[in-house]
Specification:
By secondary structure, this protein is mainly alpha-helical. Helix content is about 55%, strand content about 5%. It has one domain (about 10-25, about 30-150). Helix 4 runs antiparallel to helix 5 (about 130-150).
Length: about 150
């Protein structure tokens, strides 16, 4: 089954409806992050994609990521609960819920506006060159996973 497209306005609208079901008091159904940390965690993927931060895996680490992780991240199969994450995705400190929510909403809008053509052949610092379909899966699955974590 094909995933919804993050480049489509209907997916954006649905995502915004889901995010409104989460507030700073929302409790996770699994995992250790609170709602503010979860939103900050989601923002890391966009920070990386848009060059706001850079992951710098060495050659061996990047090879392992491409061989063993990329397929999990970019397939249609949902993430398992309590999956491991890369160190730069770990949010250990407290975050401002509204600030992180606003940032995520802006990134979602920006991604839809850029569209699939912008992401086709765009390089990921962890996975190398990716197709728009792979970028879509990465973004959509990550948000869906954590929104389900918080019951949204």
């Amino acid at each position: 089954m094909a995933l919804p497209s993050v480049f489509d306005s209907k997916t954006t609208e649905e995502t915004f409806k889901r995010i409104e079901n989460i507030n700073y008091m929302s409790k996770p159904l699994w995992g250790k992050m609170n709602a503010s940390q979860m939103l900050a965690h989601l923002n890391v993927a966009y920070d990386l994609a848009y060059g706001k931060i850079e992951a710098k895996p060495n050659f061996f680490a990047k090879l392992m990521l491409k061989l063993f992780v990329k397929g999990l991240v970019t397939s249609d199969k949902p993430y398992a609960q309590n999956s491991r994450t890369a160190p730069y995705f770990i949010i250990a400190n407290e975050r401002d819920f509204e600030k992180e929510k606003s940032k995520l909403i802006d990134y979602i809008k920006q991604t839809e506006a850029h569209g699939a053509k912008y992401f086709e052949g765009k390089e990921s610092s962890s996975f190398g060159i990716m197709t728009a379909k792979e970028w879509n899966a990465q973004f959509y699955k990550h948000i869906d996973h954590h929104f389900r974590q918080f019951g949204a």
